[in-house]
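Lab meeting, item 3. Inverse folding demo.
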């Protein structure tokens, strides 16, 4: 592979590198300065290469005797750089919208010429509070994501009963469910299991999935929650009779800020961070998550968590 790579690089690079090289060799005096060039190589897979030419002095350090050419595959670095810029631009946009809206409301309220009624004032204040609340949620989610990625999450790993955790999480969501007339069914079976994990973290996984199963459900819909043992894992499944997802939406589900935009998700608010936290958490516990979904019919999430904590 490496030889192939070297050959391919030589094939693609010559003109530019040769120019640099002959420039260096042509110098009458030795200058200790290397030069780098970055290339994109188009092919079946796009690749980025950085080539550095460094001069080697002759014995009395007067002339350039030769050149060392080092080629480095920087494809991965470029991809990470790209992701970072995308991420920064998305975050800035998500931060800007609610701040701009709130400033707009405050400006109007602060303007005596507007002559606002008490009712209008209350309305603007309510809307500002709501925008800022969802901004705070987003910032908290981002902090959670970065704690997971930087590995600075403080966990208290203890033996937990997933059945009672699920029951608690369902109870926390009942209020939201009632608003849309949704019934949550929970069958936990006879057996009792334990998992070793941090309570808050597992609860967050469960409430995120349950909240989605209600949010992306229809009026009068249903949610089915089951719990069972599967090999070394405890498996809990959350199935809803909601709006479902298109295959291309399902694929991007766990990316930060991803939210499906189609006729059915219109008017449903969110940050697109919940599932990315879910995925990162499950990964940390060396578990897995599976998704089945049919557009217009419903979605199933299956979460496998190891009974025994693998790490730490
Ligand atoms: N149960 C579900 N049914 C249909 N679509 C879902 C479901 N759960 C998640 N999604 C889709 O995945 C997207 C990302 O979910 P999530 O990360 O929780 O962010 P949010 O709920 O804030 O939009 C949602 O916007 C929605 O399009
Ligand atoms: Mg969500």
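The presenter then showed the designed sequence:
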């Amino acid at each position: 592979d490496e030889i192939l790579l070297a050959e391919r690089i030589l094939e693609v690079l010559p003109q530019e590198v040769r120019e640099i090289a002959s420039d260096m060799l042509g110098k009458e005096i030795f200058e200790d300065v290397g030069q780098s060039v970055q290339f994109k190589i188009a092919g079946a897979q796009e690749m980025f290469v950085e080539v550095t030419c460094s001069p080697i002095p002759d014995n009395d350090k007067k002339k350039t005797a030769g050149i060392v050419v080092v080629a480095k595959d920087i494809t991965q670095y470029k991809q990470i750089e790209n992701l970072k810029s995308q991420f920064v631009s998305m975050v800035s946009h998500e931060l800007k919208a609610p701040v701009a809206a709130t400033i707009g409301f405050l400006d109007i309220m602060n303007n005596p010429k507007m002559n606002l009624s008490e009712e209008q004032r209350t309305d603007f204040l309510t809307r500002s509070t709501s925008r800022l609340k969802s901004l705070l949620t987003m910032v908290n989610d981002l902090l959670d994501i970065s704690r997971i990625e930087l590995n600075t999450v403080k966990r208290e790993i203890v033996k937990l009963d997933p059945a009672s955790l699920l029951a608690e999480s369902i109870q926390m969501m009942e209020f939201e469910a009632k608003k849309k007339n949704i019934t949550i069914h929970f069958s936990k079976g006879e057996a009792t299991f334990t998992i070793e994990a941090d309570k808050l973290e597992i609860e967050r996984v469960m409430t995120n999935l349950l909240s989605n199963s209600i949010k992306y459900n229809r009026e009068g819909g249903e949610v089915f929650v089951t719990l069972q043992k599967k090999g070394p894992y405890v498996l809990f499944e959350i199935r809803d009779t909601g709006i479902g997802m298109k295959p291309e939406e399902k694929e991007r589900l766990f990316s930060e800020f991803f939210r499906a935009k189609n006729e059915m998700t219109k008017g449903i608010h969110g940050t697109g961070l919940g599932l990315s936290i879910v995925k990162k958490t499950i990964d940390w516990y060396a578990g897995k998550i599976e998704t089945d979904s049919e557009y217009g019919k419903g979605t199933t999430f299956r979460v496998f968590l190891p009974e025994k904590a693998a790490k730490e």
